[in-house]
Amino acid sequence: MARILVVEDERLLRELLVSHLQLEGYDVRSAADGEQGLAEAREFEPEVCVLDVMLPRLDGLSLCRILRRELDPGIIMLTARASEIDRVIGLDSGADDYVVKPFSLPELTARVRAALRRAPSQRTQPVLQSGDLKVDLTAHRAWRDAHELRLTHKEFELLALLMRNRGAVLTRDLLLSQVWGDDFEGDPRTIDVHVRWLREKIEEDPSRPLRLQTVRGVGYRFD
Fold it and tell me: Which residue from 46, 97, 181, 206 lies 20 to 30 Å from 35 (Cα-Cα)?
């Protein structure tokens, strides 16, 4: 059975979701706040997490970032707010999907199934490759044109994150939270410095990058 974690502080909704997902054949655990949800996730290692945005003790967006960094499950955010900016913030935090309350149980189930279909490809892809560039996530090593690259830990994590999200624009804030952690208090321009260092190692001409593209005013994209 696929493992699903529901983190929702509204007791009736939490119990309804757990009961429904169990009837659908999933192994389900639940938590009423963000800190409890994080503890459950670390023990349970769910394949999909359903997270309310507004959680006590640790909010859903912060929990989402931590789970994406540590466990990388499928993540579906639940929220009562439907504005576009709220959805963008949720997706930038690492969520795969976004469901606005009120929603139907069949809709949520369909989104869980979709998240499960995406999750296996992420977990069973230990090697990322783009042309002559290869990154082995398990061995924590990278090569370009058969020559191993000497990457620092942060350079490797940044490159892997960008390659896993190939074609998507990742904001500087998201890159900082995913690679340096939510408690990073240094200069946010460290992202630009590390991207420059990466370009020197993976681009044919670092001054005219073909792989690591800058999206002005937003962040970076791996092509």
Answer: 97
If you ran DSSP here, which 8-state letter would residue 69 be given? H
Residue 48 C-alpha from the chain's centroid: 12
| Alpha-helix runs per DSSP H in 125-223 | 153-164, 172-175, 190-202
Q: Please tell me the distance from the alpha carbon of residue 209 to that of residue 117, in angstroms, as a whole number.
A: 33
pTM over 0.70: no
- Reported as a single tens digit per residue, the pLDDT across 14-70 is 999 999 999 999 999 999 999 999 999 999 989 999 999 999 999 998 899 889 888
Long-range (24+ apart) CB contacts under 8 A made by 125-128 are: 128/160, 128/163, 128/164
Rounded CA separation 160/178 (Å) = 11
169-171 and 147-148 beta bridge pairing:
unpaired
Q: What share of the chain is helix, strand, coil (3-state, %, to 5)?
A: 45, 20, 35
The phi and psi torsions of 202 (rounded to 5 degrees) equal -115, -10
Within 8 A by CB and 6+ apart from 213, the residues are: 220, 221, 222, 223
pLDDT digits (tens, 9 = 90+) for 185-207: 778 789 999 999 999 999 999 99
Q: What domains appear along the chain, each with residue ranges and CATH number? A: 3-123 (3.40.50.2300), 127-222 (1.10.10.10)
Q: How confident is the model at residue 178 (pLDDT cuts 50, 70, 90)?
A: confident
